């Protein structure tokens, strides 16, 4: 069988939280393998480098969103973007991972050769230089949305508006919203973050939503964390371990409760929200979602800053459908009009698979939307490649690390058995009878709109979607890594 000289054993695409974590796991468990990280931007950080809107922060706790091998030291669970990217840069530098990153390297396409058992990456470096890099294994750590183009909101008449229209993904750094009336179109985590931060300088900030979200307050340090810190003052490693597992366990119990007892969860969430509302804003319709908790992402606001802004009178909420935008107003179907100086379209992300890299096998393009994901990790019919997808009801990094540990185990087993290629395959029975499931278990509009550009999961066997961290990490350590795949030895 023909061989092809490779530049690296492993090429990782993306230097965000997933790519950095993968670099660490490779160094830890397979130090004999060479790797590089190709990053299209000028710095590491992914989301936290790209987004710069006021108050950008995590929507998961940093005790689990942070790396398991470098504990989060701050005493606040929810952190703003600049602090997160500082932590990521320090973590990468501590282990020399930053020296493995090639910045301003945009991967145009990746082609796998079944003959040579190698990947060839066509790369544009520094905007002009064309090069080809080869590897044995391909790790896709590009997230799940389009970095170049935000989701364009379908708002009738928005092009006629004479004021400023801003999107959080491409926030104008010179935008002055002091004493301005701002309307944020959307009700997700970004809108919930923007309202209290814009309200510090704006005259008024209104969230305009078609339907509400669940918004839960998270104290900077709750009583359990306070107790853990004081009881474990003598051992920082023990303290970090307990804090991390507290944040793994509590969200897990909450989501299981919500999935199994949705009406009880609705009532509990509703009571918590009602207690924080100002008397001028009724819970129904503004804070009473039509869906159950965790059917869409539950938004967190640190120390209840979102509700504090509403109680101050600087922030408010309007629920309704936009009829049209005029040069100086937003007209709702109800007949009400809003008169903003600035409109912010916080209407979600444009989903994109593999960062837009065109993937081919022996030059034949793949229709990713027709493919299934094996164990939430590998793509059907795509050899020697893994795809990182985190959780929608827990922190992204938990899922990313479960994937990294499973892939490292697979690579070790490939070395042990002399295997050159592993490729997931559905059986003929599965192709005919297996029920399809969406990749992301969310009912959000931006997720529904992306079903034609993302792979699928199945209802049975090795093709089922991710479930929860405990199960996935046990699968990574001890689970079956052979069923549903072909392992091809070298000659």
Chain-wise SSE layout:
Layout: E1 8-13, H1 17-29, E2 35-38, H2 47-50, H3 62-65, H4 81-94, E3 101-102, E4 105-113, E5 118-125, E6 129-140, E7 164-166, E8 181-185, H5 189-198, E9 204-209, E10 215-218, H6 223-231, H7 236-260, H8 262-274, H9 283-286, E11 299-302, H10 305-312, E12 315-319, E13 322-326, E14 329-332, E15 337-338, E16 342-345, E17 358-361, E18 364-365, E19 373-374, E20 378-379, E21 385-387, H11 396-417, E22 419-424, H12 428-433, E23 436-437, H13 445-448, E24 457-458, H14 469-478, E25 485-489
Helix pairs in contact: 1-11, 5-10, 6-7, 7-8, 11-14
Question: What would you say about this model in short?
Answer:
By secondary structure, the chain is α/β, with parallel strands linked by helices.
Biggest sheet character: 9 strands, mixed
Oligomerization: single chain
**How much helicity do the residues have?**
25-40%
Number of domains: 2
How many separate helices? 14
Unreliable residue stretches: none
> Helix- and strand-based class?
alpha/beta
Q: Examine the coordinates and then state which fold CATH places here, giving the name of the CATH topology of the largest domain.
A: FAD/NAD(P)-binding domain
Radius of gyration in whole Å, from Cα? 24 Å
Q: Estimate the strand proportion.
A: 15-25%
CATH architecture of the largest domain: 3-Layer(bba) Sandwich
The CATH superfamily of the largest domain appears as: FAD/NAD(P)-binding domain
* Mean pLDDT metric: 92
What is the overall silhouette?
globular
- What is the CATH class of the largest domain? Alpha Beta
Give the strand tally: 25
State the end-to-end distance. 7 Å
Organism: Friedmanniomyces simplex
Pfam families: FMO-like (PF00743), NAD_binding_8 (PF13450)
InterPro entries: FAD-binding_MO (IPR051820), FAD/NAD-bd_sf (IPR036188), Flavin_mOase-like (IPR020946)
Keywords: FAD, Flavoprotein, Monooxygenase, NADP, Oxidoreductase
């Amino acid at each position: 069988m023909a061989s092809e000289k490779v530049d690296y054993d492993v090429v990782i695409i993306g230097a965000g939280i997933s790519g950095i974590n993968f670099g660490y796991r490779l160094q830890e468990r397979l130090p004999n393998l060479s790797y590089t990280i190709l990053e299209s931007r000028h710095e590491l950080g992914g989301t936290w480098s790209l987004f710069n809107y006021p108050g950008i922060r995590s929507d998961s706790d940093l005790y689990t969103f942070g790396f398991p091998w470098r504990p989060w030291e701050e005493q606040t669970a929810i952190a703003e973007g600049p602090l997160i990217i500082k932590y990521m840069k320090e973590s990468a530098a501590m282990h020399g991972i930053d020296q493995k990153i090639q910045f301003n390297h945009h991967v145009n396409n990746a082609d796998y050769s079944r003959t040579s058992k190698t990947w060839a990456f066509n790369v544009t470096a520094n905007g002009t230089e064309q090069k080809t890099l080869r590897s044995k294994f391909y790790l896709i750590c590009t997230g799940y949305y389009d970095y170049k183009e935000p989701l364009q909101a379908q708002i009738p008449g928005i092009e006629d508006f004479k004021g400023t229209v801003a999107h959080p993904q491409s926030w104008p750094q010179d935008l002055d919203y002091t004493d301005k009336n701002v309307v944020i179109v959307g009700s997700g985590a970004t809108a919930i973050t923007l309202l209290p931060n814009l309200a510090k300088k704006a005259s008024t900030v209104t969230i305009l939503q078609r339907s509400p979200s669940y918004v839960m307050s998270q104290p900077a340090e709750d009583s359990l964390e306070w107790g853990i810190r004081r009881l474990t003052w003598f051992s920082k490693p023990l303290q970090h371990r307990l804090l991390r597992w507290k944040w793994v366990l509590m969200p897990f119990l909450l989501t299981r409760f919500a999935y199994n007892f949705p009406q009880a969860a609705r009532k509990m969430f509703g009571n918590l929200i009602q207690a924080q509302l100002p008397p001028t804003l009724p819970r129904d319709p503004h804070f009473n979602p039509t869906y159950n908790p965790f059917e869409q992402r539950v938004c967190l606001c640190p120390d209840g800053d979102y509700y504090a802004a509403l109680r101050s009178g600087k922030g408010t909420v309007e629920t309704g459908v936009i009829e049209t935008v005029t040069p100086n107003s937003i007209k709702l179907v109800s007949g009400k009009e809003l008169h903003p100086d600035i409109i912010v379209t916080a209407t979600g992300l444009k989903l994109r698979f593999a960062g837009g890299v065109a993937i081919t096998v022996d030059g034949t393009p793949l229709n990713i939307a027709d493919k299934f994901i094996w164990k939430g990790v590998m793509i059907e019919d795509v050899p020697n490649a893994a795809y990182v997808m985190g959780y929608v009801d827990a922190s992204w990094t938990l899922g990313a690390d479960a994937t990294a540990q499973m892939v490292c185990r697979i690579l070790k087993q490939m070395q042990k058995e002399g295997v050159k290629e592993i490729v997931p395959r559905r059986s003929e029975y599965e192709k005919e009878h297996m029920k399809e499931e969406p990749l992301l278990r969310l009912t959000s509009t931006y997720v529904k709109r992306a079903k034609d550009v993302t792979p699928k999961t199945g209802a049975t066997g090795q093709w089922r979607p991710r479930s929860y961290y405990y199960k996935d990490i046990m699968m990574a350590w001890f689970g079956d890594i052979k069923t549903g795949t072909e392992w091809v030895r070298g000659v």
